[in-house]
Amino acid sequence: MIVAGIGCRKGVSREQVMAAVESALEPYGLSPDSLSGLATARLKASEQAIIEAGNALRLPVFLVDGPALQLVSLRGLTRSTASLSAAGTPSVSETAALAAAGQKSRLLGPRSVHGPVTCAIAVNGEEP
């Protein structure tokens, strides 16, 4: 399972989310076709661009609750004061990806920042 975790500012576009996902996958030689889903914090459920990107990519969008984000927060690689303040987690994109990918998931690397969107890639199982 490979999950792209998304964090963003309010009002981003579907195109910005999709560009962030593609850019985050590129260093690992992956394409959107290799993804099992997108993930974000439940508090981002009103960000229509994330849902629209999932639909465009034909992927489910996992909305992760705060307690699940907290459970994996120590496994994240990035510490953002903005994310801590807004979501109570060091990185929405990293913790959402880890939580959605499963109990034994790991990040391929730290989140990447693409303008107003962050994206982190988590895998569960063998190296892709």
Model description:
It is an enzyme of class 3 (hydrolase). Residues 2-122 form the CobE/GbiG C-terminal domain. Keywords: Hydrolase. It is a single chain. The protein has helices at residues 14-25, 48-57, 66-72, 81-87, 92-101, and strands at 2-8, 37-41, 61-64, 106-107, 112-114, 117-123. With 128 residues, the chain is an alpha/beta fold. The chain has one domain (2-123): CobE/GbiG C-terminal domain (Nucleotidyltransferase, domain 5), CATH 3.30.420.180. Strands 1, 2, 3, 4, 5 and 6 form a six-stranded mixed sheet that branches.
Mean pLDDT: 92
- Binned, the helix content reads 25-40%
Uncertain parts: none
Number of domains: 1
**N/C terminus separation:** 9 Å
- CATH homologous superfamily caption: CobE/GbiG C-terminal domain
Q: Structural class, from helix and strand content?
A: alpha/beta
Instruction: Give the CATH level 1 class.
Output: Alpha Beta
Q: Largest sheet at a glance?
A: 6 strands, mixed
Count of strand segments: 6
The CATH architecture: 2-Layer Sandwich
- The shape is globular
